[in-house]
Design brief:
7% helix; six-stranded antiparallel β-sheet; mainly beta; five-stranded antiparallel β-sheet
């Protein structure tokens, strides 16, 4: 802001100019801004910790838009963003010739970067082209707009939006049938389908299991369940048992070219909770399907 520029001038031994800016603002009088030297401002706080603590980025981009709302043209502005803890630079760019009210943008590929939720901005150089008779307001400022897009992560401690984390289709073969029987179709008199799920995801997993080739009264089998969140370093385990009495099953496979086989689809998703959780590509979801007393 103009107020911060005035404070910086005073701190750098140019109290006359800095105090002059404050007085001009207070009494709504014009002032000469043509002789403001290059200034720097370090460790400006940028806090996104309500959204994430840190993240290892696979893909994504950061866009920085600078809007000049100062009462003077900007000749040069070198702006950098860095992590607060490890001090790694995320972006460093020089914006040139930003007219009063003008804007410019720069982007940075974030692939492979570790980004912290608490960051710092550094203005290494700010050089203004000010007029000789300018009315100022101490709240006039440089506006910085940060936009992150297309982000995927290998790991993050973050607030995650609704998203699918597993979507698979697989075949299940019926083993151990007596006398080597080969079935293309069966009507189930009794018995159960057992689905066992192991998850290391530290957030509730909303689990949809579908057997398109099994139907009852013409309605394919589909069910929705919840696997509770795992704790750090532990695995959540849940067993679901479904009564298949009265179901007709096509056992010729997805392409109708085999025997003793049905296919199923598995969809697992997490939902937005507003809470930060740790997820990584090393997390796993294992699903085991078996039958129990199927006749």
């Amino acid at each position: 802001t103009i107020g911060q520029i005035a404070d910086a001038l005073i701190a750098n031994g140019q109290a006359s100019l800095g105090n002059g800016i404050k007085l001009a603002a207070a009494f709504n009088q014009p002032i000469n801004l043509s002789n403001i030297p290059a200034l720097s401002f370090n460790n400006l706080p940028i806090d996104a910790s309500t959204l994430f603590t840190d993240a290892n980025i696979n893909t994504g981009a950061l866009s920085v838009k600078i809007v000049n709302k100062l009462p003077a043209d900007i000749q040069s502005l070198q702006f950098a963003i860095k992590n607060k803890i490890d001090q790694a630079t995320i972006i460093n760019h020089t914006f040139s010739n930003l007219a009063l009210g003008g804007a410019d943008s720069a982007s940075q590929n974030l692939a492979g970067m570790h980004v912290e939720g608490v960051l710092e901005g550094d203005i290494a150089t700010l050089k203004l082209n000010g007029g000789t008779s300018v009315y100022v307001n101490l709240n006039q400022s440089i506006e910085v707009i940060l936009t992150i897009s297309g982000v995927t992560v290998s790991s993050a401690n973050a607030v995650f939006p609704n998203q699918d984390v597993v979507q698979e289709q697989a075949k299940v073969s019926l083993l151990g049938l007596k006398n080597g029987i080969e079935l293309k179709y069966a009507e189930i008199a009794s018995g159960f389908l057992v689905v066992e799920v192991y998850s290391t995801i530290q957030q509730d997993l909303y689990f949809t299991y579908n057997v398109p080739s099994a139907s009852k009264a013409g309605v394919p089998f589909v069910t929705e369940s919840v696997v509770t969140a795992a704790t750090s370093g532990q695995t959540s385990h849940k067993v679901f048992q479904y009564d298949f009495t009265g179901y007709a099953m096509d056992l010729s496979g997805q392409n109708h070219d085999t025997v003793n086989t049905f296919f199923n689809t598995i969809l697992g998703k997490i939902k937005y909770t507003g809470k930060k959780v740790f997820l990584s590509l090393s997390d796993s979801i294992v699903v085991s399907v078996s039958t129990l007393n199927l006749k």
